[in-house]
């Protein structure tokens, strides 16, 4: 049949998600047309045809990056039923030469949101020496890792790769545990701008984080001062400080922020 009709059929079967079409969709996971392969995988995900899960995962390393990403997205249809086999795939392949499939699977695990996958992903992070895999793991753990992943994420916060450090800072903001405030305060002085920026942004989301940022305004490190001021402004603190200043009720912290923004020297209260 012409491609247009074949594609229309694949999309229709994917939308219906009827178990009776599982055999046909499995067959066309190997279709010569990428979009038909994607629609076949999507349909199998919609019907939660768990026996097709391994077949979909096996294709990840065979696809181009764009098709691979869309193929991986079809795994979301399996929801938490996919967690165990996907974790097994990550554990078996994370140290391989081509981590592209693992990176997509880790991303999917984070999107599925099954917190029971957190400990296993944390263990893989402890073992991994591939920065690309570590970035994916840290991002996922920010969503599903919880407090048990904090020691491993603290280690990631001091990775030699700035991308891993930046992702770890963001992950702490997602987890929301104030235990890491001192660690984030330390990396406000990181040599990389993204790490400083993400650390400051994470502090705005943690109990006690705003106080830490206000104290950073008097740091000897001008990079830390700038990162703190930017995060405070993004969090609405600058507007509040201006309003309070006009009303004559600005706090010492708010006055510090206003002086910094005016380029004046800021001293401790």
Architecture overview:
There is one protein chain. 66% of the residues lie in helices and 0% in strands. With 269 residues, it is mainly alpha-helical. Helix 5 (65-73) packs parallel to helix 7. The mean pLDDT is 93.
Task: Name some characteristics of this structure.
single chain, 269 residues, 17 helices
Cα-based radius of gyration, to the nearest Å: 24 Å
Q: Quaternary state, please? A: single chain
Structure summary, number of beta strands = 0
Number of helices: 17
Global morphology: elongated
Strand content: under 5%
How many strands, which pairing sense, and closed or not: the largest β-sheet? none
Q: Give unreliable regions as ranges.
A: none
Distance between the termini: 78 Å
Structural class by SSE content: mainly alpha
Give the proportion of residues in helices. 55-70%
Write the layout of secondary structure elements.
Layout (H helix, E strand, L loop, with lengths): L2 H14 L5 H6 L6 H13 L6 H7 L5 H9 L9 H11 L6 H13 L5 H10 L3 H14 L5 H7 L5 H14 L5 H6 L6 H11 L5 H8 L5 H13 L2 H11 L4 H10 L8
Concise synopsis of the structure shown:
This protein is mostly helical and about 270 residues long.
